[in-house]
Amino acid sequence: MTDLFEHNINEYNNKEETAYMFRRDHQIRGDVAIEMLSEVVKNKNQKLLSVACSIGVFEEKIINKLGIKVYGIDGAPDALKEAEKRGVITKLGDVSQKLPYKDCSFDFIFAGEIIEHLLDTKNFLNELNRVLKPSGFVIITTPNLARLDDRIKLLFGRSPRHTTPIHPYLYLHIRPFTFDSLKGALKHCGFGDIKLKTNILAVEFFNKRFHLYSSLLAKLFPTFGSTLIVRARKT
C-alpha cells in the first residue's frame, strides 16, 4: 500500500498533473459538491477536513463561499504549499493509513477524487467516520463506473474507461465505483441519509470526448453522469 501511495504522490506532486482541476467538468464537480455542503452548514465556527486536498482549488472556494475553517491533508508536499497559499490549514500525511486527527474532530469531510485510488475502502471510510463528529457529513466525489457511455461499451464487450490498465492516468484508479457499490460501502461503515448528484453527462468513443453540459439532465439522471457526487451523514 505504501508503494501505491508513493506512486500516486509522484504523479500528483506538481502543477502540471493537477491542471485537470481547472477543466469545466471538474469545476462543475466542485461547485455541485459545495452546493451540497452549503445545505448542511449551520455556522462559520464549523470545521471541514479535506482528504487529499492537493493544491486547494476547491477548498479555497469553500472558504470563500461558506466562511468555515478548512483543514487539508495530502501526501504531496509541493501541492500542500499551494494549498496553504489558498488559506488551507495543511498537514502532510498518508491518507490510506490512520488519519492523524482525534476522534470526532470535524463537522464535515470532503474527499474529492481519492477513494478510487485506495486499496482498502473499508479502512478509509471507517477513518472518515472516526474523525467526524456525531451526525457530521462527508462528501465524496469519484468517477462513475456506470456512466452512460461505459454502459453502452459493456453491451459490445468493451471495457469501461476507468478499468483500462494502460491509460495515462486512469491506471491509478484501482477501485472504480457505481452509485450502488459506493452507497453499500458507506452504509457498511456507519453512514446514512445518502444523497447523489452528478456534474455532467459525458460520452467518449474512439478516443473522442463529448461532454453534455445540461444541469437538467444531470439532475434527472445522476446515475448516468460522469462523476458520482455523494453526501452522507454519520449515523
Nearest-integer average pLDDT: 92
Shape, per Cα inertia axes: globular
Low-confidence regions: none
E-strand count: 9
Helix and strand run:
HHEHEHEEHEHHEEEHE
Question: Would you give an account of this structure?
Answer:
With 235 residues, the chain is of the alpha/beta class. The chain has helices at residues 2-12, 24-38, 57-66, 77-85, 121-131, 148-155, 179-188, 215-220; strands spanning 47-51, 69-74, 89-92, 106-112, 132-143, 191-197, 201-205, 208-212, 227-234. Helix 4 links the parallel strand 2 and strand 3 (89-92). Helix 2 (24-38) runs parallel beside helix 3. It is globular and about 50 Å long. The model has no long low-confidence stretch (mean pLDDT 92).
Structure in a nutshell:
With 235 residues, this protein is of the alpha/beta class.
